[in-house]
Each structure stands twice: as C-alpha cells, then as structure tokens.
Task: inverse folding
C-alpha cells in the first residue's frame, strides 16, 4: 500500500508534497531545477525511492519557483530567492529541525540554508551536488548549453534529458522532452542553468555543522564525480559514498547503493531488496589514522607571469614528478585523484616519515626555483579508490597555506606523534585560525637539527 500523498501551496506560491508512513523527523528534498511533483510521482522509480524514505520520515518534496506546479511568472531568479523558497517550505512544514536532502542544484541551496540556519538542520545529504557551478563543464560548454536552450528549446530539452539520464530506464515516464517542457519553460531553464554555472558556495562549506553525507554517481555526465569529492573534503567530517552507475539521479537505474548509504547514515532500515548483492553495495570506506602531507607552489600566479605559462607548466610538471619520487622513497603514497591548484597530496602510516618527506619536498622546490608551502597533519581519513577525503585532509591543506614559502609547518598532533622519533627541531609557531575549522590549531615550524 502506498503512503498517502497530500499537496499544499505556501503563501509564496511554492507547491509542496508530503508523504509519510513513518514517525521520524521531516526530510526535505531540495532541488533547484526541473521539478514537477506530479510527473515525478508518476515515475515508478522515483516513487519507489520516495516511499522507501517515507516509511521512516515525513518526506517533503517541493517545486522551486518557476518549476512544475509552483508559480511560473517569478521574474529574475537568484540563489538568494531559491533559498527563500526552501525557507518558506521549512516554515510551513517543519517544527524545529529537518533532514535536508539537496540533489544537484539543490545542493548549493541546501548548503546555503544550512550555513544560515544551522539550528534547523538535523542532518544534511548532498546527492550529485556541487559547490562551484563553474567547474561543472568548461566555459565554452556552459555557453553552448545555455544558447541551445535559448535558441533551440526542443534540442535543449533533449540535451538536459541526456545529461541526467543517458540510458533511460523503461519505466521512466517524465523524461520525454514534451514532459520536461511541462516541468520548466525554456526561458526559465536558461535562467536557472546560467545561475547554476555562476553559483559558488565553496566558502560556506566550512560553516556546515550538521552531520553530512555526500553521495555521487561515479559515471554521472551531469555533475562530475570530482565535484562530489571536493564537497566531502570541504565539509568537516563529511561521509562520502561513491555510487556506481551512469545515471545522475540516485533513484534511476539501480538505486540500491544510494539507499544503503542513506540507511547507514540515517540509521534506519529501509527494507532494501536483494541484500546479498554485494556488487552494488556502496558504503563509506572505514576511516584510518593517517599522516597527511600537502604541498603547493608558492605564488604560482606571479611565477607564471614572470616565467611564461609554458615554462612554468614544464617546471611544475618536473617538480611534481620529483615530489612523488621523494614521497615514495619515504614509504608514502602520492594521491592520484584530482586536486586544486598546483598541490601534491600524500599519505603516510608514520608521522616521522611524513616529516622526512616534507623536508625533502621543500628542498626539491627550492632547487627548482619553485618554493613550496608545506603542511603536515594527522587524523582519520576516508579512502576511496585512489583518493582520500575528510576533515583531516582539509586541515593539512590549510596548514600548508599558513606556511611561508619554503617553510614546513606541522600540527600539534603530528608534533606529538613524531617528537621522539623525527630528527628535527619543532619551533612553536602559535595558534592559527584556519578557514573552515571551528577551533584554532597550534602549528609548529620544522627545522633540521
């Protein structure tokens, strides 16, 4: 028997659907584009996913402004107004706290609301989401998508359909272009996609206080997998679930991995069928205590201007190769996943070995005329494929950013672990307020004896 669904409309013209059999807290599903409650409900895959959650929670789904059954004539749309829509829904439906589930462009909206109203967010789920819209696809591709929507609406709707669901499942009922047009006008799609590409909430990630689960399909064509990884790195103690499949939306294709990640995070039994199918099981990899080394070329912009882009990139590639060699010699593991800027990230099972490598990395940078910022921290990390995530990784990067060119800084944790084994001198460099880290961190300057 399906749980009952009832509809309501806020005084701001936002259409809401409630669905619940459970007695758990409200779970608000946030999406910023291509929303249509009734058409989604007609899709068996979405309805099954929705109902699995509704067995335990009061699930609340809404059409954002300009979408679906909500008011269409809304003028200009910006991120602030989309956050107002979520606020209106929260005020109309939620007593004190709710679980926020931000999917795709709903991610930046949920992140913004969580940073503004931490007292109202019990837990946060970010599914196929992003912080920096400009990183979704190259600028020329962004312009092409928007222009196609503006000048060839039919082709634009086909393009959006392909991005979110490259291999539509047989039962999908709302993915045909004519039905997408019912969900959103071409004019509003242009406005929302342009807004999404301009959106950047990365500065808010460090302000998230709610326990957070980040889920992302590895083969998503809509939002690159790396953007999900970067969310997990930027949010303190976030869990990361790498999901199989090429469909973007978690309820499409095989939703088992997504539901299992939610089941573990929300601590409920979602009654997922075929529990023996280990191949589709997606869980966060267990955390391990690890020493983390982060390096970054100091003042790379000025060096590029002075040396020329081609010469700088060549020297940077040579340095990158040298640093990875130093790290391996010290029994460390360079991380091969995508990183920001000109940094190198590595992990070690020994804090002493990490410090040894840090000193040699600094020397290698100095020798090549590319001095480095170097930082070392130790803590729990999540290991996923060839990458690592978690708050400890973020702290290592922030400590590196605090170091002067050619200087090695380490955290109090690393100093305590290595003070009797590393043949170095630790000089107290004071407490630092690190961006995105709630408490100040004491750092130590490393000098060779």
Result:
């Amino acid at each position: 028997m399906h749980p009952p669904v009832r509809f309501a409309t806020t005084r701001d013209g936002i259409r809401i659907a409630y669905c619940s059999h459970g007695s758990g807290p409200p779970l608000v599903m946030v999406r910023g584009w291509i929303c249509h409650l009734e058409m989604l409900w007609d899709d068996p895959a979405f309805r099954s996913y929705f109902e699995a959650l509704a067995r335990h929670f009061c699930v609340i789904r809404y059409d954002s402004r300009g979408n679906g059954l909500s008011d269409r004539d809304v003028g200009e749309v910006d991120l602030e107004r989309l956050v107002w829509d979520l606020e209106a829904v929260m005020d109309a439906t939620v007593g004190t706290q709710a679980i926020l589930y931000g999917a795709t462009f709903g991610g930046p909206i949920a992140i913004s609301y969580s940073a503004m109203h931490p007292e109202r967010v019990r837990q946060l789920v970010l599914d196929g989401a992003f912080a920096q819209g400009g990183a979704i696809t190259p600028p020329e591709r962004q312009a092409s998508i928007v222009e196609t929507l503006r000048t060839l609406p039919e082709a634009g709707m086909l393009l959006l359909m392909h991005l979110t669901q490259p291999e539509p499942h047989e039962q999908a009922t709302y993915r045909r272009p004519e039905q997408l047009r019912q969900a959103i006008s071409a004019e509003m799609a242009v406005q929302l996609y342009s807004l999404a590409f301009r959106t950047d909430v990365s500065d808010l990630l460090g302000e998230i206080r709610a326990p957070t689960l980040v889920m992302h399909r590895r083969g998503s064509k809509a939002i690159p997998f790396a953007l999900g990884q970067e969310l997990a790195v930027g949010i303190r103690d976030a869990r990361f679930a790498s999901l199989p499949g090429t469909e973007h939306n978690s309820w499409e294709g095989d939703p088992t991995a997504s539901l299992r990640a939610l089941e573990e995070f929300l601590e409920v039994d979602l009654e997922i069928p075929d529990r023996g199918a280990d191949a589709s099981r997606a869980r966060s990899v267990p955390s391990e205590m690890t020493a983390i080394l982060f390096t970054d070329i100091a003042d790379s912009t000025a060096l590029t201007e002075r040396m020329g882009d081609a010469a700088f990139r060549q020297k940077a590639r040579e340095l990158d190769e040298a640093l990875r060699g130093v790290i391996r010699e010290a029994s460390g593991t360079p991380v091969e996943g995508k990183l920001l800027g000109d940094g190198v990230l590595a992990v070690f099972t020994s804090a002493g070995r990490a410090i040894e490598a840090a000193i040699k990395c600094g020397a290698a940078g100095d020798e090549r005329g590319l001095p480095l910022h170097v930082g070392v921290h130790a803590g729990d990390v999540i290991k996923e494929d060839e990458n690592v995530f978690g708050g400890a990784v973020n702290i290592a990067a922030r400590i590196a950013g605090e170091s002067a060119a050619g200087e090695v800084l380490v955290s109090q944790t690393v100093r305590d672990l290595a003070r009797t084994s590393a043949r170095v001198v630790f000089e107290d460099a004071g407490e630092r307020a690190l961006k995105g880290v709630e408490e100040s961190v004491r750092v130590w300057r490393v000098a060779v004896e």
